[in-house]
Amino acid sequence: MTPRRPTRHRNGGRCDEGSATVFLSITVLGLLVLIGLVVDGGAKIRGIQRADALAADAARVAGQRIDVPDAITGQDPTLDTRAATAAARAYLTARGVTGTVTTTGTTVTVTVTDSTPTVFLGLIGIHTLTVNGRASATLVPGISGAAP
Prior knowledge:
Helices cover 42% and strands 20% of the residues. It is α+β, with helices and mostly antiparallel strands. Keywords: Membrane, Transmembrane, Transmembrane helix.
């Protein structure tokens, strides 16, 4: 019995030689891009959530800085704007992020700017994504008098 020879095409090559290479290359490249978008998109969402949480925490810290003499005399609470701004900035600095703090009446608004590292986008030169978060805290007067 003689060994069987592979079928050859007219041009002398095998029939299926290299036919899946281009298709496979394009498919794998597309899948890698899709995986990269999912991974780095998820990282950006987590970064935004972290920035929002830090802004909310800094706003709460600032909202606790009330004008004590007014509160002692029974007046509606007002913010000690300098102390509130300093407290929020100190909180943000301790967490390693930058941000702005604004006070308007009895409301403190904190905006945080942070960055989150990328995994797949680093392959094309984008190593970090910038994210922003924002939160406000408002002082509300407490209940005075006897509770029903």
